[in-house]
TrEMBL record:
Protein name per the record: Tetratricopeptide repeat protein
Protein species of origin: Alkalicoccobacillus gibsonii
Classification via Gene3D superfamilies: Tetratricopeptide repeat domain
UniProt superkingdom: Bacteria
Length: 324
């Protein structure tokens, strides 16, 4: 993760340098590469979030006369996937409980990466299950499978089927992700708006929603969403990711707050101090930025990233003075 953040920041600064030189042809080439790199990481984050969210909602489903609990479901909840698969395959049930057993088994195969078994179990339930909740989670689970395997159009169709049965918040969220990855930003925004209105403390969803609004050039809306996400975030990884996105769109104040919170956590101190100084400088707060850069130079005299930032800021200062 740290290497990706460093590479991303280096690529971003290289683009800034190309813009200063007026080399627009190479700017678009490098910008396309950067966007592809960000999309790959975003795809991975969204897939992981979808898988965890779907499983958590299912496991948290209140037991009823149609519920199913066993040693296999316990193993699944504990993330002991191989044991969960073996146990659920050997267990016996009847009627609706058999549908729930198969559903848990399908999710165990999904989380364990068993592709053929995942499709087989979900498709069987979609075609035969009498319990509407079982069919809902089967459509959602199969949608998650196709998202993991980069068939997002198919995934969106399945999530839409799940939504028709029961419009749960996680399905609405997953549809927002799918439509973002497809490029249907207006539709994605509608789903994220619906989700974040009902689930207001989901930092990941707020961050994602902000990205969609930014892609729609609704920058003030995006800024408000990212400010809300920052209030919710508790990990340095989330805050640094938000800082990088905020910096990219020129929301330097948000990036500054992100890095300040990371420093307060006592994590990624050198990276966060550099990010803080850089964004303070970009936000015309040079008097606050220079002492931090000075400290970084003393503590890390051979850090190429710090020196590169200072060189870039020096050029900007020279250009600004020459214009006055």
């Amino acid at each position: 993760m740290e290497k990706w953040m460093t590479d991303w920041q280096d690529a971003y600064k290289e683009i800034c340098t190309l813009i200063e030189k007026g080399d627009t042809n190479h700017v678009w080439i490098e910008l396309n590469k950067l966007e592809q790199k960000s999309a790959k990481v975003l795809d991975l984050w969204s897939v992981m979030d979808e898988k965890v969210a779907l499983i958590k909602e299912h496991l948290a489903h209140e037991p009823s006369v149609n519920g199913y609990q066993s040693m296999g479901t316990v193993y699944l909840e504990q993330n002991q996937l191989k044991r969960a698969v073996l146990s659920l395959e050997q267990e016996q049930a009847a009627g609706v409980n058999e549908e729930w057993r198969r559903l848990f088994l399908a999710y165990a195969h999904l989380m364990n990466g068993s592709n053929n078994q995942t499709i087989e179990q979900f498709m069987y339930l979609i075609q035969t299950a009498k319990d509407e909740s079982v069919r809902h989670f089967s459509f959602a689970g199969l949608g998650c499978y196709y998202t993991v395997n980069h068939q997002v159009d198919r995934a969106a169709e399945l999530f839409e089927q799940a939504k028709l049965l029961t419009p749960t918040s996680d399905v609405v969220y997953n549809l927002g992700v799918c439509y973002y990855l497809i490029g249907a930003m207006d539709v994605s925004a509608e789903h994220f708006e619906q989700y974040t209105m009902h689930v207001q403390q989901d930092g990941e969803a707020l961050c994602f929603h902000g990205m969609v609004r930014a892609r729609l050039d609704q920058f003030e809306h995006a800024k408000q969403l990212w400010e809300r996400a920052l209030e919710v975030y508790t990990t340095s990884e989330d805050m640094i990711r938000l800082a990088l996105m905020s910096e990219w769109y020129g929301f330097f104040e948000i990036a500054i707050k992100c890095y300040q919170k990371v420093i307060a956590l006592g994590e990624e101190e050198t990276f966060a101090m550099h990010g803080l100084a850089w964004n303070l400088a970009l936000n015309d707060q040079l008097r606050l930025a220079w002492p931090i850069f000075d400290r970084l130079l003393k503590e890390h005299p051979h850090d190429p990233h710090v020196r590169r930032s200072l060189q870039h800021l020096g050029k900007l200062a020279e250009e600004k003075n020459s214009m006055n």
